[in-house]
Amino acid sequence: MNRKISFLTIVTLFLSVQANAQDWPVPADQNNRVNPQEYNLANVNKGKDLYLKNCKSCHGDPGKNNALPLVPPPVDVTSDKMQKNTEGGLYYKITNGRGAMPQFKTTISDDDRWKIVNYISNFSPKKQPLLVDAPPVKAKLLASVNERERKVEVFAESENNGIFTKLPNTPITVSTKKAFGNIEMGKVLTDENGRAEFVIPETVIGDEQGNVNIVVSLDDNYIADIVTLDKAKVGQLKPTPKLIQKGILWSTNENIQIWLLFSYIAAAGGAWLTIGYIVFQIAKIKRLSKE
Amino acid sequence: MERNTRRNFMKKLGASMGVAGVLGSSGLFSSCAKVETNTSGKITLLTSDGELVEVEKALLKPADIPSLPENQKRGRLGLSGRSWVMVIDLSKCRNARECMKACQNHHQLRPEQHHINVLQMQDAEHTAPYYMPKPCQQCDNPPCTKVCPVNATFKRDDGIVLIDNERCIGCRFCIAACPYSARVFNWFEPRDAEKYEGVTYNIEANVPQKKGTISKCLFSADRLRDSKLPSCVSACPNGVYWFGDRNEDAVTNGTTKETVSFSELIEKNAAYTLMEELGTKPRVYYLPPKDRAFPFQGQNNTHHS
Fold first, then answer.
1. Under DSSP, is residue A214 helix (H, G, I), strand (E, B) or coil?
2. Smallest CA–CA distance from A212 into chain B, residue
3. pTM (2 decimals)?
4. A197 beta partners
5. Reported ipTM
6. B96-126 pLDDT per residue, tens
7. Which residues of B touch A202 (CB under 8 A)?
8. What torsion, rounded to 10 degrees, do the Cα atoms B202, B204, B209, B210 define?
9. B219-230 tens-digit pLDDT
10. CATH label, B70-287, candidates 3.30.1360.120, 3.30.470.30, 3.30.70.20, 3.40.449.10
């Protein structure tokens, strides 16, 4: 038992020391590994997709310093601390993880992990950035629902030198509102006139009346108000199966079954009657004893 | 005198039993009608984050804090049209225990009391160990509600099993009936009991806790009423929990806030429920601990069931 406790103490101490250590040592042979994935736009883009899916929830958007407040804090991709790492070092850390950082060797393939390294290198001062995110452009979105044809019609405009002009070939995301967030129905590209039509799938579930709240938005490259189309009658009726059926469960007095109510009253009343009868008999004995 | 001893005893017994019965029943009625009142200028309120704040009475709208009977009534009805489900991704759990901390703060639980507990699991001798958070399974066929002799625990129409500790008599039949060991008993004064003095009982958070009554996970029903995710779900730093409405087939991750289709998520990942064979129909689904994001840190236990 004592040995167990001391072992646990050592393990905890070791872990806490490891978590508090400022530097994260990488074995020399790992540190000098060369990225087998070429540094090109396709690989960096793929790396970006993977980063957004797997890393962003903790590390935040590159350059925005909006990482999760964890201890130790996740490092921003553009920071010196991140960029100080060699490509091999980054690959090693993504692969094995440490403390709160997951190991990605179980969930992301070797090639894809190198592509994430490529994406991080995009922000390196030593490399020519391949992905240059233009500063976000002001845009306007107009959208309406055609309930009969089950379509969302969108018109997008963006600002050019103070004038709003049509926005062609831009992805528009169409989502529906759910209890705690929006679920994406699909994406649609605008045509050369800045217009797009999105066909609403048959399977969309609305509320009890089949009303769907549709959210239309542009991606991060644009600053635009999100358009919310409330109560479009295009969804299936939301199924609301009754959980509390008579005969199985009841949670309120209104749901109680009559036979149960009567048998309860009969049993409880019977018990009180019996007690009353006994008391009456005792009183009778007392009266008889006095006579 | 000697002769009458037994008779006298019976006489006294009958009289005292009658008195006790009358007193008991009147006590029962008075306890049902009792509502906490606070005459001072300030009132202590429990925020949804589990913190107590003192607020001037004049600043409060009466609709925001329902009276105890009203709270008990709406607590029994639930949120109409909803059917809450939780999906726990075992491959993401790191034993960070943030869910447990948030839960204990929210529901005024002592350190040894758990509405949700992260267990170290090993299914067989040669299989890999993993961490498993285990809240109440909110069964659709709950064994616990059926054994309650005073209708203190019940199933709502939105799927949550709750407790009314104003009714609970502390018999602990429900603890014996629950196959998941999801229920805890307040053997001692609850944590921070003095801080919660005079706070109106909220059936949907089971706060303030009361010594001698049962408590259990209730999917933070008070937070769901405010369209917020349960405490444990929002507190998780590793994206373990998905929570949502089965009727609208959508669950939202508490960490990444991503919303996906519930049926697709459980189908693609071969989700399972605990002790399915008992026919309890749990509402908590588990995604298998395949491709775990974190290595197991604990000690491997060679004893397993």
1. strand
2. B248
3. 0.76
4. A153
5. 0.72
6. 899 999 999 999 999 999 999 999 999 998 9
7. none
8. 80
9. 999 999 999 999
10. 3.30.70.20
